[in-house]
Amino acid sequence: ERADADVVLQLRHAQQFVVGKTTFDNVVGEAALKSGLLKIVSLTADLGGGNLGLAANVDSGVAPTKVEARFRAVNVDGAPLMQAMGMGGAVTAGRLNMEATLAGPGTSMRALMTKLNGGVHLEMGQGAIKNDFARLMFADLFQLVTFGGTGDAAHVNCAVTDLAAVDGIANAKSMVLDTPGVTIVGSGDINLRDETLHLRFD
User: Which of 82-115 are b and which e, b meaning 16 or more Cβ less than 10 Å from the residue's Cβ?
Assistant: First the structure.
């Protein structure tokens, strides 16, 4: 439904917010709502020694509601960030850098994903990924990926991923994972419409 109130919100003094098990520190931001358009001019926060930044427009004056967002993460602790994004357990240790631009219908998270347009660039330094996630992603290469890891996590030297999404299909422009046991280069796509993976790893 369209929001018609005219509101300006400014967080000028650092605040702390808790989302699930993740705590965001030094939260500062500015947002305005006018004629159905929510404009998040800037929203920044600290997480695990790193910094997050978000700017977004949510336009309820059109049907369906339109969402456009830009997100940045710099040297952020990967585990709590993934937890806050609903991917808890994927990364158990390691720092992330991320740049993302997203656009799509904002009626629900499901609708946004199925019609998503934008791109994501992700870099991870030394860290670890959970074995269950490694098994899901890398299937037949699981033993090589987890070589040198622990009983429940695979050690990662570094990882880089570039995705470009058009109408809910995210194509892997580049996907590289380096572990003590193997270096993997991936290609293919992720279908966000039906939540299926079509990836090849060499």
Answer: bbbeeebebbbebbbbbbbbbbbbbeeeebbbbb
